[in-house]
Write a structure and sequence with these properties.
Blueprint (H helix, E strand, L loop, with lengths): L2 H12 L3 H8 L15 H5 L4 H24 L4 H16 L12 H11 L1 H18 L2 H20 L2 H17 L1 H9 L12
Helix pairs in contact: 1-4, 1-5, 2-4, 4-5, 4-6, 5-6, 5-9, 6-7, 6-9, 7-8, 8-9
Length: 198
């Protein structure tokens, strides 16, 4: 399984827009039409339907892991599996199914980390949860987790190619949070449980 096939597989799976699919299944408004306009679990939660948000979260995370699992099952090597995971993440962030305007990638990134290592995913998720618990800023938690993930990857796995993939993925994730960064610096970012969270 070569790198191009791996990348295409990952991108196609990553482009499945679970936020939109789940919202339609629950007869909710399109998540791109309210709140932050972001087709992700956090925005689906603003609809008031926690089950829909949970299913979106699971779907977005699962597609990152599933792409890597399939690649591994058909005999891809470690580099190809890593590329598959990165492509799945990019498919979520820049999906052709939604005109290349996707989510911020937090859940899908976690699924990719799980594909590399359960410990890596668990520690990263723990960092996210700790920051949310302390600050109640979901966006800040995502930024801190993204900033630490490449270092955790190198520490736990010690593989340059995987670390490079995680670093690139996290750089894109941080870039996708640029509006949140501006709000955090301005003191106007909403907190978890608040009415202005985006």
């Amino acid at each position: 399984m070569n790198l191009l096939v791996s990348a295409v597989l990952g991108y196609l799976l990553g482009s499945v827009p679970f936020a939109v699919i789940v919202s339609r299944a629950f007869r909710l408004a399109d998540p791109r039409s309210f709140g932050s306009g972001n087709p992700g679990a956090t925005n689906v939660l603003r609809s008031g339907n926690k089950l829909a948000a949970l299913l979106t979260l699971i779907g977005d995370a699962a597609k990152g892991w599933l792409a890597m699992f399939i690649a591994a099952r058909v005999g891809a090597d470690g580099t190809a599996i890593a590329v598959t995971g990165l492509a799945a993440f990019l498919g979520h962030v820049f999906p052709f199914t939604l005109g290349f305007r996707g989510g911020k990638g937090v859940a899908t990134a976690l699924g990719v980390l799980l594909g590399f290592s359960a410990a890596l995913a668990g520690i990263t998720a723990g960092i996210w949860l700790a920051v949310v618990a302390i600050t109640r800023y979901s966006s800040l938690a995502a930024l801190v987790a993204a900033a630490t993930a490449p270092f955790l990857t190198w520490w736990l796995l010690g593989k340059a190619d995987i670390t490079a993939v995680v670093a690139l993925m996290c750089a894109v994730l941080i870039y996708r949070h640029k509006s949140n960064i501006r709000k955090l610096l301005a003191g106007s970012e909403g907190r978890v449980g608040g009415r202005k969270q985006d």
